[in-house]
Amino acid sequence: MPPVVRFRSAVAVLGRFPALAGVDLDVDPCEIVLVQGPNGAGKTSLLRACAGLLAVTSGTAEVLGQDLRRDRRAVRRQVGLLGHATALYDDLTAEDNVRFAVRAAGASTDGVGPALASLGLDGRLRHVAVGRMSAGQRRRTAIAALVAKRPRLWLLDEPHAGLDADGRDLLDALTREAAADGATVLFASHEADRATTLATRAVHMAGGQVRAGIREPAHVA
Amino acid sequence: MWHDAALVAGKDLRIEARSRVAMNQVAPFAVLVLVLFAFAIDPNRGVLARTAPGLFWIAVLFSALLAVQRSFALEAADGARDGLRMAGLDGAGIFLGKAAAIAAQLLALEVVLGIGVVVLYGSDLHGPFLLALTCVLATAGLAAAGTVYGVVAAGLRVRETLLPLLVLPVVAPVLLAATRATEAILDGRAGWASPWLRILAVFTVIYVAFGVLAFGPLLEEA
Questions:
Q1: Is the CB of residue A79 less than 8 Å away from at least one CB of chain B?
Q2: Which pTM value belongs to this model?
């Protein structure tokens, strides 16, 4: 099967700064790949480039068979990004937010209820405006939107941030479940112990490049 | 495109229904503008009645700036703009949806301001059909131009102060044509209104067409 992510000498700039300075990376279907590296290494830029939010200006950048240099918007409905921000609307309820994300992606809304329930947002919380929620509950709502959208590629940037211990375990379980169902996961995390347990492979970034991409055997949860 | 437009418009109007910013802040602001104009110009109701069309559209224009800023402030909070881009929605659909939501709020506001003009300025309402047509055309033009420049300013730190500088010169023809058409209709000279209505329609079509074509690329660069 062709790789879900295929970058060759990919360069992306933020202003004049080369956020990605020639990235080479392959991610195969159903892999859970951890992107490690110090602050400013280019982890977030790599995830944003995979999502088509950051333009790749030279090299090769293909995600899910789409050439991002030709049309970086083409992959977005098949990709889910959980970034530092939750991308939620404060005045809408958890259910409204998840439903909007799912309908915008052209996915079935049948998964909205189960997704909210799986994140512990059923019952009263479902109808609470996101602006009144705690940071952890907002994060759970953002994850519920990701789960309900059922993307083929999950891009997670520090996904455990803001979650309590139960929430972190839940996120790890959902991530493994998604990979088992055929999705591919690329995530960046500074929580080394938890992240290496979750990942099937780790790559290391520094200076806007992938410096090491050691293939390791999959861990058993 | 139409599905995406309906989705975005529904989302923005649902947010307004929950937050009631337009109802609780923009509408009182617009009425306050009318009242202050009444104080500032002349207590003579004859002068006020003559200047009512211009004052009405100035109040609508100021309110439109607030509505546009609010519409894009929603997308600036907590990475919502990235969420909107990641949704994979058609750029033209997002433009039409956001412009339609702004236009719906402005039309509701114009009803309130229309009552205000009658009560405060003593204007007589003639030609309700032509007045409604003028309002629809001018509001669509203001909402379309505001939405285009709203996304241009959205990614900038100086967006609050930049937006009026960008929008006001561009919508000057709409303001002029809407004011002249309204004057003619209120004076009972409907025939004099038709050239201004045609100008209004032309500018509105230009703004909408430009928004449909340009909004997607502008959102990507914002």
A1: yes
A2: 0.84
